[in-house]
Automatic annotation (TrEMBL):
Descriptive protein name: Dynamin N-terminal domain-containing protein
Spans traversing the lipid bilayer: 477-495
Organism: Rotaria socialis
Keyword Membrane among UniProt keywords: yes
Keyword Transmembrane helix attributed: yes
Dynamin N-terminal domain span: 53-99, 108-183
Organismal lineage: Eukaryota, Metazoa, Spiralia, Gnathifera, Rotifera
Length: 585
C-alpha cells in the first residue's frame, strides 16, 4: 500500500487539538449513546487516514459505471446491471497490483495500481431506495466517514423524493457535495438539458442551503462530460481543499451529533416544563389541603364547644330550679334526697355528654382521614396524568426508532416512568394505611380525652359543701357524684352563694372545654403535619428527578456551547494554517 497522506508535520498541532476535543466530548458529554461515542472515536481515527471520496445514489443511477469510467480501467472494477448489484461498501485503494480483501461483513477493499487513488480512496456504495433496505442502511451508516460526496442522480428520475431525503441526511452531517446528473445522452435537446439542470440546481440549493453546489451533466456509459468532471476534481478539489475538508470532517461529525442531542435536550426541557407544572399542581393540592383543614377544623371544634355550651345552659336551668331553700330543706331530713338530686343532675346536666363528645371525636377522626384520602386521590390523579404522558412519549420514541432517537433519551423516559409508577404505588399504600388506622386513632383519642376529663373531675373529690357538690356533679362521668351531700348543713348560705356556685361551675366547665380543645388541637396538628409530610414525601422523588434532569440538561447545553466555540476557533485556525502554508509554498 503506497497511499500518500495529505497530512505532514506542520499539521500535527491542529490534529492533536481536534483529537483532544473529540476525546473530551466522549468523556464529558454523559448523554452520548454508545453508537455516537463509537462514531466520534472513528472520526478521531479517520483523521489520519487518506482522503475518502464517497459515491452515493439510488440503485440504477449509474454509480458503478461512473466509477469504472472515471478510473479508466480496462476490466470492470465495480459490477453494473439493471438490478441492485452492489451489496457492500467497496473501498478502492492504491496498490501495486489488484487485490480484494474482505474487511468486514459490509466492507470490501479493492487495491488497484491506479494513480487516481494515490491520495484518494474512492468508495462505491450500495444503491439507496432499493428493495433491500439493508443496502440503504449500510450506505447511510458510512456517510459520516466520508470527506467528500459525489451524489449521482439520473435524467430518467432526477432528484426524486427519496433522493431529496437522502441529501437532507448528507447535509445534516455537514458534508460537501458534488452532484452528477448521469445518462445525459438520453436527452437530445439543449433546452431540455437546461431545464433539467435548473430543476436539479434549484432543488439542490434548497436542500443543501448552498448556491455554489457544483453540478455536472455526464454520461458514464458514453464517457460524455467525464473529462470535464475529472479536471474539476483534480483542480478544484486540490490538496489544499482536500486537507481543509479532511481536518473539518471530524468537527462536522461532532456538530451533527450536537444538533441531535440539542434536539433531544429541548424535547426533554419541554417534558420537564410539563413535569414542573404537574409538581406545581401537586404542591398546590397539598397547600390547599392544609389551608382547608385548618379552616374546617374550626367548625369541628365548634361542635365540641356547643356540647359544653349546652351543658352550661342545662346547669343554669338546674340551679335555678333545684338550688332553692324550699327544695333543699327536705334533703336535711332524708337520705334518699341526695340520690334523687344526683339523678336529677345527671338527667338534666350530664345526660349523653360523654357519648356526644365521643361521637364528635369519632367524626373528627373520620373527617381527618376522609379529607386526607381525598387529597391523596387527587395527587394520584395528577400522577396518573403525568404517567400517561410519559408512556405516550415512550411509545412515540419506540415507533419513531430512527437516527434521531437515542438510547439516552429512552433511558430518560423509562426512569421518569419508574418514578411516577413508584409514586402511584406509595399513594395507594398511604390510603390503605389511613383506612386501617382510622378506628385505632379514634379509640386512642377518645381514651386520651376521657383521661383529661376524669382528671378534671377528680380534683374536687375531697371538697365539701354545695359548691363542691355542684362542681363534682358537673363532671361526674364516672359516678363520682356519690360524694354528694358532705357538708350539706352549709345550705343556709345558698341565697348568698348562688351566683358564686354558678360561676364556679361555668369556670370548671370552660376549663374542661379549653383543656379538651387544646388536646384536640395538638392531636389535629400532629395528624395534619404527619399527613402533609407523607404527601410531600410522596412528591419528593418526582421533584428530585425533575431537578436532577434540569441540572443535567443545563450542564449538557453548557458543554455543547463550550465545544461549539472550540470548533469555531479550530475552523478559523485551520484556514489560517492553510493560508500561511500556501504563502510559504
Amino acid at each position: 500500500n503506497e497511499n500518500v497522506s495529505l497530512l505532514d508535520h506542520t499539521h500535527h498541532e491542529l490534529v492533536r487539538r481536534i483529537k483532544d476535543l473529540l476525546i473530551h466530548v466522549q468523556t464529558d458529554l454523559t448523554l452520548l449513546s454508545t453508537a455516537d461515542k463509537k462514531l466520534l472515536n472513528e472520526a478521531q481515527t479517520n483523521i489520519d487516514s487518506i482522503f475518502l471520496l464517497v459515491v452515493v445514489g439510488e440503485f440504477n443511477s449509474g454509480k458503478s459505471q461512473f466509477i469504472n469510467t472515471l478510473l479508466g480501467e480496462k476490466e470492470e472494477i465495480c459490477p453494473t446491471g439493471v438490478l441492485p448489484t452492489t451489496d457492500v461498501i467497496q473501498i478502492l485503494k492504491y496498490g501495486t497490483k489488484r487485490k480484494d480483501i474482505i474487511e468486514s461483513e459490509h466492507i470490501k477493499s479493492i487495491y488497484l495500481p491506479n494513480e487516481w487513488l494515490r491520495q484518494t480512496n474512492l468508495v462505491d456504495t450500495p444503491g439507496t431506495n432499493a428493495v433491500l433496505q439493508t443496502h440503504q442502511q449500510i450506505t447511510e451508516h458510512f456517510i459520516p466517514r466520508s470527506d467528500y460526496i459525489l451524489f449521482v442522480t439520473s435524467v430518467d428520475r432526477p432528484f426524486s423524493e427519496s433522493e431529496r431525503l437522502f441529501l437532507v441526511r448528507i447535509h445534516q452531517w455537514r458534508k460537501k457535495v458534488l452532484i452528477i446528473l448521469n445518462k445525459i445522452d438520453q436527452i437530445q435537446k439543449d433546452t431540455d438539458k437546461e431545464k433539467l439542470l435548473n430543476y436539479v440546481r434549484s432543488n439542490a440549493h434548497q436542500v443543501l442551503d448552498d448556491i455554489t453546489v457544483p453540478i455536472f451533466q455526464i454520461s458514464s456509459l458514453k464517457s460524455i462530460g467525464i473529462d470535464l468532471l475529472e479536471n474539476y476534481l483534480r483542480t478544484e478539489l486540490n490538496d489544499k481543499k482536500k486537507l481543509k475538508l479532511k481536518l473539518e470532517n471530524p468537527l462536522g461529525i461532532a456538530e451533527r451529533i450536537f444538533d441531535k442531542y440539542l434536539a433531544i435536550v429541548h424535547e426533554r426541557k419541554q417534558t420537564l416544563v410539563n413535569d414542573e407544572q404537574a409538581l406545581f399542581i401537586l404542591h398546590s393540592d397539598v397547600d390547599e389541603y392544609r389551608r382547608q383543614m385548618l379552616d374546617d377544623f374550626k367548625l369541628q371544634l365548634s361542635k365540641i364547644d356547643n356540647i359544653f355550651f349546652r351543658m352550661i345552659d342545662n346547669m343554669e336551668e338546674f340551679l335555678l330550679e333545684y338550688i332553692q331553700i324550699s327544695r333543699l330543706i327536705p334533703t336535711l331530713f332524708s337520705s334518699s334526697s341526695s340520690a334523687e338530686l344526683k339523678v336529677q343532675f345527671n338527667n338534666r346536666v350530664n345526660k349523653n355528654i360523654e357519648q356526644d363528645i365521643t361521637l364528635c371525636i369519632s367524626h373528627l377522626c373520620d373527617w381527618i382521614v376522609q379529607r386526607s384520602n381525598r387529597t391523596v386521590h387527587q395527587l394520584n390523579k395528577h400522577l396518573n396524568a403525568s404517567s400517561s404522558n410519559s408512556r405516550r412519549q415512550q411509545q412515540v420514541i419506540k415507533e419513531t426508532n430512527n437516527s434521531m432517537s437515542s438510547g439516552a433519551d429512552v433511558d430518560f423516559s423509562i426512569s421518569r416512568q419508574q418514578i411516577l409508577n413508584q409514586l402511584q404505588t406509595q399513594s395507594q399504600n398511604i390510603l390503605y394505611k389511613q383506612k386501617t388506622a382510622n378506628g385505632a386513632q379514634a379509640d386512642e383519642l377518645t381514651a386520651s380525652i376521657r383521661s383529661t376529663m376524669l382528671g378534671t373531675a377528680a380534683i374536687e373529690v375531697g371538697a365539701v359543701g354545695l359548691g363542691a357538690l355542684a362542681t363534682l356533679a358537673s363532671f361526674d362521668w364516672t359516678g363520682l357524684l356519690g360524694a354528694g351531700l358532705i357538708g350539706i348543713f352549709g345550705l343556709y348560705l345558698i341565697p348568698m352563694r348562688r351566683l358564686t356556685i354558678k360561676q364556679e361551675m361555668k369556670d370548671r366547665i370552660d376549663k374542661t372545654r379549653i383543656d379538651l380543645t387544646e388536646q384536640l388541637r395538638k392531636h389535629f396538628s400532629h395528624e395534619l403535619d404527619n399527613n402533609e409530610r407523607k404527601m410531600r414525601e410522596l412528591i419528593m422523588p418526582y421533584a428530585r428527578f425533575v431537578q436532577d434532569e434540569e441540572e443535567k440538561i443545563q450542564k449538557t447545553i453548557e458543554q455543547i456551547e463550550t465545544v461549539r466555540k472550540q470548533i469555531k476557533q479550530l475552523k478559523l485556525d485551520i484556514d489560517i494554517s492553510l493560508c500561511q502554508k500556501g504563502k510559504l509554498q
